[in-house]
């Protein structure tokens, strides 16, 4: 569109329109006569007499190209196309609001309508983009709050996990100490028991996991099941030196005064 093309050209020329000679700040001749200069600035072949902050010098050169050279025409085309903006240098630089000033003259009625429509479209587009930006900023704030909340929960979970790990290590340490102590006690008790009883205990322990358990209140300490009356009567009638076993799990039952016999 007309305005889009114009804005694009403004961006391309913007850096070169900052500080032109004072004498170039107003158009003194039509753009279709005289020597073509950048933005119709006064032609000055003698650089010693140049009164300007900087000068725009064209360098027609395309030795570094290949295939279809044509860069050498760039300076000439730039000078030619810059004539479109030469009338808008009354302030010494180009500004976008100058397009609004341009609407007041030097354009046809059709161009005037098109420019007004384009300005309205750009204004509405700017408003829509600002609304979108505001919505994105609000969503970003919400996300940042969620992230902060998640980080806080993560820190709490990490602290709880560290506490659980600490207690786990303490329990494992206690179990290790208890295992060492029980192993020493077993080594001291092994010589007291008959060899056949130890062999039976080792075989049951290997198969079931528990070789022997207390008989307490008529319940097997290994499987936690209560023995029936017939089993209790059989155990009661069995001599103390004989081995009795649980009918359910096969563990050796150790009779005590709390067995409920």
Report strand %.
under 5%
| Spatial strand arrangement across the major sheet | 2-1-4-3
- Helical content class: 40-55%
Mean pLDDT: 76
Structural class computed from helices and strand pairing: mainly alpha
Structural write-up:
With 261 residues, this protein is mainly α. The chain folds into three domains: 2-96, no CATH class; 107-192; 195-255, no CATH class. It is 49% helix and 5% strand. The chain has six helices and four strands. The protein has a four-stranded mixed β-sheet. A hairpin with a 2-residue loop joins strand 1 (212-216) and strand 2 (219-220). The longest helix has 81 residues, at 109-189. The model is unreliable at 1-27 and 91-96 (pLDDT under 50).
Features:
261 residues; mainly alpha; 3 domains; 4-stranded mixed sheet; 4 strands
Question: Helices and strands in order, then pairings?
Answer:
Layout: H1 2-13, H2 74-81, H3 98-102, H4 109-189, H5 195-208, E1 212-216, E2 219-220, H6 229-237, E3 244-245, E4 252-255
Concise synopsis of the structure shown:
The chain has 261 residues and is mainly alpha-helical. It has helices spanning 2-13, 74-81, 98-102, 109-189, 195-208, 229-237, and strands spanning 212-216, 219-220, 244-245, 252-255. The N and C termini lie far apart (106 Å).
């Amino acid at each position: 569109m007309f305005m889009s093309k114009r804005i694009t050209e403004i961006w391309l020329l913007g850096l070169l329109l900052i500080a032109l000679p004072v004498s170039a700040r107003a158009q003194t001749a039509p753009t279709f006569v005289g020597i073509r200069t950048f933005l119709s600035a006064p032609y000055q072949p003698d650089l010693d007499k140049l009164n300007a902050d900087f000068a725009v010098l064209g360098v027609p050169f395309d030795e570094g190209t290949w295939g279809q050279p044509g860069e050498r025409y760039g300076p000439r085309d730039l000078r030619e196309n810059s004539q479109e903006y030469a009338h808008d240098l009354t302030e010494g630089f180009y500004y976008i609001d100058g397009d609004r000033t341009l609407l007041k003259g030097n354009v046809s009625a059709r161009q005037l309508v098109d420019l007004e429509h384009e300005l309205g479209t750009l204004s509405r587009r700017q408003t829509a983009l600002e609304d979108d930006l505001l919505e994105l900023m609000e969503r970003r704030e919400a996300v940042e709050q969620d992230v902060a909340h998640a980080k806080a929960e993560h820190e709490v979970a990490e602290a709880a996990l560290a506490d659980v790990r600490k207690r786990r290590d303490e329990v494992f340490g206690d179990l290790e100490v208890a295992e060492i102590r029980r192993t020493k006690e077993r080594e001291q008790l092994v010589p007291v028991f008959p060899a056949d009883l130890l062999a039976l205990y080792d075989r049951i322990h290997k198969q079931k996991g528990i070789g022997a358990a207390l008989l307490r209140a008529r319940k097997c300490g290994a499987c936690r099941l209560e023995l029936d009356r017939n089993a209790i009567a059989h155990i009661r009638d069995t001599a103390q030196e004989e081995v009795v076993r649980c009918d359910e799990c096969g563990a050796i039952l150790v009779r005590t005064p709390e067995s409920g016999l």
